[in-house]
Amino acid sequence: MNKITKVARENFTWLFEQPLELKLSILEQHLSICQLVINQILEEEVKFLSGERYSHDKPNAGRFSRWGFNPGSVNVGGKKLKVDVPRVRDGETGDFQSLESYQELKDLDGPDEQTMEGVLRGLSTRDYQGVIDYLEEGFGLSRNSVSRKFIRATEEKLKEFESRDLSDYPLVAIFIDGKYLARQQMMIVMGITGKGEKLTLGLLQTGTENSQAIGQFFEQLKERGLCWQEGLLFIIDGSKGIRKAIEEHFAGKFLIQRCIWHKRENILSYLPESLHDDIKKEYHQALEQKTYQAAKKSFLSLIQRLEKLNRHAASSLQEGLEELLTLHKLDMTEEFSTSFSTTNCIESVNAQIQKYIRRVTHWSSSDQRYRWLAAALLEIELKLHKVRNFKHLYKLKKAIENQLKKQTSPS
Prior knowledge:
Structural class: alpha/beta
Number of strands: 8
Helix content: 40-55%
Radius of gyration: 24 Å
Largest sheet: 5 strands, mixed
Order of helices and strands: HHHEEEHHHHEEEHEHEHHHHHHHHH
Number of helices: 18
């Protein structure tokens, strides 16, 4: 039987297509199995970001694209296994997106014999029946027992998540975004501390972004010690319900930065695709202006142009103009336009959540949604990096306070 020494960038889909002799040859070499598992994991994250290879149906509004490979390695059982790590380019920032799955794989100590047996029994090939059977055999647990243990563990995580004292975390900014689970929206609220740490504050299940429900949720966060009295910068996607709730429950103590990405996509949705590149260019040129006055002047010029092309596109830009320029008003674009001008910060968390819940095919109850998300968010939080330029957040905090004083002082 021929020995296979390298499986390159292939995954399990490739393996299933091979002749039986080749499959058996690979099974004799556990490192080849590990290579296929690793490639499969990396490819799933790349597909989530940029879609299927060669497909024109791109997720995330086509923002991410495949960009070749970089050499990398993963420690497997004390052995260094070389892997080709896919590169994904962020079309908005021009940066390359770090693959969270690769970082997690690098942090592994290497699977022990039981883990390897679990993989071979079907974990990586989605044969979950085989994995449950393996748990029964290895640990003497029934399927119901395994399920009950998982439910109890996630119940504890949810209790920890919802009872966390927020008074120990002075905040500078709050991101708000939603994630749909079986047509039910789970709104996620994440705060940024003065040290640049990302802290998930809470979850809210809501059919729509209703201001009353969101307002009650804000009050619950205050009861848990949310620090807001000195003023907060809210970064939102433009939801009227969220904005109204912020106005009512943080009156005089908030500034709103509208997500420049969501606003741009909303404007483009009214225009033919042939105009997109040109409008994008003019839109971002306005945002790149150094001062509030210069940026507003450029946007007003763009609005005049849009009025001739499509009145709804022009109205969309006019409606959100002042909140698009909040960082410009604060004179903080140079330091924080990357971190605080879009909801990307929280959307990246949403993308990581998908890795934890992507196998769930049926959401049976509200309790299940809360338990799974809370457990995932607490795990993700441990791995989140601080925001860029976090050492200068004191400047942003001071600028927010000064701007709020200007808004409330008599003219």
